[in-house]
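User: Round two. Same drill as before: sequence, then structure, for each protein.

Assistant: Same drill it is. First protein:
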Amino acid sequence: MDPTDPNAATDRLPRVGGEEPSTVVRLFGSSGFFRLWLAQVVSATGDWIGFLAVVAIAGRIGGGSGAAAVSLVMIARMVPGFFLAPVAGVLVDRWDRKKVMYLSDLARAVVLLSLPFVESLWALVLASLLLEVATLLWSPAKEASVPNLVPTGHLTTANSLSLAAAYGTFPVASLLFALLQKLGSSLDGISGLSFLRVGEAGSMAIYVDVLTFVASALFISTLALPPSRRSRERDELHLDFAATFRDLREGWEFMFTDPVVRSVMLAIATGLIGGGMIVPLGDVFSREVLGGGAAGFGVLLSAMGFGMAVGVLSLSAVQKRVPKTQVFALSVLGAGLSLLAGASMSSFTPALLFVGALGVCAGSVYVLGFTILHETVHDDLRGRIFSSLYTLVRFCLLLSFAVGPLLADRLGALSSSLVGGHVSAGALTVDLPGVRLALWLAAVTIVGAGLFAVYSLWAGDQDE
């Protein structure tokens, strides 16, 4: 962290009146980050509930073409990020981030409030697009604000807590969505509530979702978060397109020329391309290669999830004694080697252990990657860097989901035509189905990214 940054938090936990920090401060780093984390928990829960509700509404509106309607709405949620996220990063660095966050939450609440009354697919697509724009502003504004609320030595724990808030809320949101669907059906017969359409698919979930975003906005409005230097120097209502392009170029140049930032971004991107292939290919690999049956894929995903939790908790426990850049690079290498070993197994139990190890390394990569960026990137650039990172994450996940099955199919055909689908060395025979070859290729890609991260981080240390 730049010691000259006026918005940067100090390296030590704050004391009040010379007394030891409270339990909240010791765990979260500051009371301000605790409020921001509560806002993220509420907002993430709302995001997941809203996602499920929008899918349900799309299915209702689509009628006989429900699947196509859901696909169109999902495209409206995903595609804008590729084009609008870079500009959103510029705006986050230029505007007051506190205002960006609570106004984005309120904007999402207003858009969501209209969804129970939507009857047109195109209106739902437009609403989904507006929701996505607000999210594109909220997420990098939040990430850019974390180092201004948390001492440097506590950033690893802060990012671990953020990861838990972002993804740990999905099971809770899924349960709430199911309960709200039942509640809506029960209230549907009350004539005084008919104008709210509570019995329609997703309507009750939407109303609760509105409340989550209002609550998140209230939490954020209480933050003592000073505006960034750039927002103080600029007229926030004036849009200078030439300056916007200069800011974009400045962010991209920094991302590609700084060895630490470049290696972190590349490692996370390739890790997602490789690791993301587990989702579309894991079920086939479990059933056809490991003999895991119908439930095997769920067990593999659970092992990876538990592994991620172990990795995140372990880092939080030893954060002050961990050389972050070295452990980050080793975690990327470990993720690739774990995937390579797991894909090489032909029985379920050893594959399960390696998938768990992959989860440990993946959790470490995520937390340490965000922590390194928080510590390395100056406050003036954080919005653009994290906006670019989120764009990269979306692109790489979509690429892995789309390419994984096609790659497995082509490699399987090639294996069958060249070596009959297996190779033998004495008494040892190794089957080479396409799904295994695709996972091997993904693992080698991650290992390559890990080696590049080792080199880049070493080069960065040499330049200092």
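Second protein:
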Amino acid sequence: MTRLYSLVESATHPNFSALYRRLKLEEERFGAMRKLLSAVKKRPPDFIVAEFFYGYSNDYAGITISNLDVLLYSLQKYAPHCRCIVLVAKEEREQVDQLQKIFPLHEVLVHPVAEAQMEAALQQP
């Protein structure tokens, strides 16, 4: 069965669990990045759906772009074939392009995300 991990870090993350079940995807939901990273190391997923939050001010002196940098670095090592679907607020869409220059993203969907958009992203090769 195809495995999908959802990283739910805010109330704006849409719940597509019914869609995932209909598409016969095995979903696991995580509320913390560290728990998701631990799961990625143990059982690499086929998909990850996560929201993008730009790091307007961070403690890393500009080294990181967003909340997803560490996850995407980890995927290169532990799940290189995983396809990452990023959800983003309209006002932060341009910032995702910075991230995409470093990491290949399967799809970038702007809030509000419709179920049909997510279904299309999941069925894309």
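Residues 27 and 43 are 12 Å apart (CA to CA).

User: Perfect.
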